[in-house]
């Protein structure tokens, strides 16, 4: 799945590119996650969107990317049938590069041993890349998700090899932020894993520029009675219309838990404090 394209995944990509050129190296991944078909209630939240994944593959040197639709037909292919299909699609296939825990075929019956044996018979070599270890543990998407869920953005970034990013499209909100002097962009269509509700400082990429912002992810208990989770960001020192635009949020810093204030005025004072704290994360002291 290459969910996150973390340092372990990047090691596999580097191993692939070391064996050939960009023009004859292909990365294959599935969409949607196989669990969406096998056991929908167990599908893990995404670390990267489909577009982010495509962009990251390209950044890490892969020009050719094949997204295979995972459906019931594909699920029911035996490991043997899967390899035969692969060879039919790529008759000049020379080698396959995978991680140690690679499994394939119906009920994940295929493993690297079978891949090596049948690959040799089908005319391709199998290269198995050892897992990457960080602080004594194998890097995995699961560990990154757990780090984000406990707001350990530093660890998540170390395992990813870059800052964790959340992307969304600015939609129409209630306009409350603007009326109290702190306009916010209401982010919608976010597919990546979100941290626990709370207030965060972050950096925001928009229109090839980087801004800093204060993010509130929560129920907005001070201004709405029947709350629903909202993700909104106030861009500090920004003026303009962001509706319909894509924002990319990264470099998160936890500020505080969300709380209900006794008045809007008290909320405004707290937001001003949150802004100053966010500035302290990103601006060097004079």
From TrEMBL:
<keyword id="KW-0274">FAD</keyword>
<dbReference type="GO" id="GO:0009398">
    <property type="term" value="P:FMN biosynthetic process"/>
</dbReference>
<dbReference type="InterPro" id="IPR015864">
    <property type="entry name" value="FAD_synthase"/>
</dbReference>
<keyword id="KW-0808">Transferase</keyword>
<keyword id="KW-0285">Flavoprotein</keyword>
<comment type="pathway">
    <text>Cofactor biosynthesis; FMN biosynthesis; FMN from riboflavin (ATP route): step 1/1.</text>
</comment>
<keyword id="KW-0067">ATP-binding</keyword>
<dbReference type="InterPro" id="IPR023465">
    <property type="entry name" value="Riboflavin_kinase_dom_sf"/>
</dbReference>
<dbReference type="InterPro" id="IPR023468">
    <property type="entry name" value="Riboflavin_kinase"/>
</dbReference>
<comment type="function">
    <text>Catalyzes the phosphorylation of riboflavin to FMN followed by the adenylation of FMN to FAD.</text>
</comment>
<dbReference type="InterPro" id="IPR014729">
    <property type="entry name" value="Rossmann-like_a/b/a_fold"/>
</dbReference>
<keyword id="KW-0511">Multifunctional enzyme</keyword>
<keyword id="KW-0418">Kinase</keyword>
<protein>
    <recommendedName>
        <fullName>Riboflavin biosynthesis protein</fullName>
        <ecNumber>2.7.1.26</ecNumber>
        <ecNumber>2.7.7.2</ecNumber>
    </recommendedName>
</protein>
<dbReference type="GO" id="GO:0003919">
    <property type="term" value="F:FMN adenylyltransferase activity"/>
</dbReference>
<dbReference type="GO" id="GO:0006747">
    <property type="term" value="P:FAD biosynthetic process"/>
</dbReference>
<dbReference type="GO" id="GO:0008531">
    <property type="term" value="F:riboflavin kinase activity"/>
</dbReference>
<comment type="pathway">
    <text>Cofactor biosynthesis; FAD biosynthesis; FAD from FMN: step 1/1.</text>
</comment>
<keyword id="KW-0288">FMN</keyword>
<dbReference type="GO" id="GO:0005524">
    <property type="term" value="F:ATP binding"/>
</dbReference>
<dbReference type="InterPro" id="IPR002606">
    <property type="entry name" value="Riboflavin_kinase_bac"/>
</dbReference>
<feature type="domain" description="Riboflavin kinase">
    <location>
        <begin position="159"/>
        <end position="283"/>
    </location>
</feature>
<comment type="similarity">
    <text>Belongs to the ribF family.</text>
</comment>
<dbReference type="InterPro" id="IPR015865">
    <property type="entry name" value="Riboflavin_kinase_bac/euk"/>
</dbReference>
<keyword id="KW-0547">Nucleotide-binding</keyword>
<dbReference type="GO" id="GO:0009231">
    <property type="term" value="P:riboflavin biosynthetic process"/>
</dbReference>
<dbReference type="Pfam" id="PF01687">
    <property type="entry name" value="Flavokinase"/>
</dbReference>
<keyword id="KW-0548">Nucleotidyltransferase</keyword>
<dbReference type="Pfam" id="PF06574">
    <property type="entry name" value="FAD_syn"/>
</dbReference>
């Amino acid at each position: 799945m290459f969910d996150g394209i973390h340092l372990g995944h990047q090691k596999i990509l580097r191993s692939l590119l070391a064996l050939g050129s960009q023009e004859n190296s292909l990365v294959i991944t599935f969409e949607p996650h196989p669990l969406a078909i096998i056991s929908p209630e167990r599908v893990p939240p995404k670390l990267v969107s489909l577009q982010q994944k495509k962009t990251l593959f390209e950044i890490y040197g892969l020009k050719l990317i094949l997204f295979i639709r995972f459906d019931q037909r594909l699920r029911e292919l035996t490991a043997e049938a899967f390899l035969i299909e692969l060879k039919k699609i790529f008759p000049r296939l020379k080698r396959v590069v995978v991680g140690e825990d690679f499994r394939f075929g119906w009920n994940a019956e295929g493993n690297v041993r079978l891949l090596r044996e049948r690959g040799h018979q089908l005319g391709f070599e199998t290269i198995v890349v050892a897992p990457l270890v960080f602080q004594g543990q194998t890097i995995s998407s699961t560990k990154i998700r757990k780090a984000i869920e406990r707001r350990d953005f530093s660890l998540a970034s170390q395992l990813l090899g870059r800052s964790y990013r959340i992307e969304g499209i600015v939609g129409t909100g209630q306009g409350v932020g603007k009326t109290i002097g702190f306009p916010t962009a209401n982010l919608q269509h976010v597919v990546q894993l979100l941290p626990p509700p709370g207030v965060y400082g972050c950096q925001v990429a928009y229109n090839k520029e980087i801004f800093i912002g204060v993010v509130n992810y929560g129920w907005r208990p001070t201004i709405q009675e029947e709350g629903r989770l909202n993700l909104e960001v106030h861009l500090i020192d920004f003026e303009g219309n962001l509706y319909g635009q894509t924002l990319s949020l990264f470099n998160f810093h936890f500020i505080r838990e969300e709380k209900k204030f006794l008045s809007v005025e008290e909320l405004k004072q707290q937001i001003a404090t949150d802004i100053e704290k966010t500035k302290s994360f990103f601006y060097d002291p004079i």
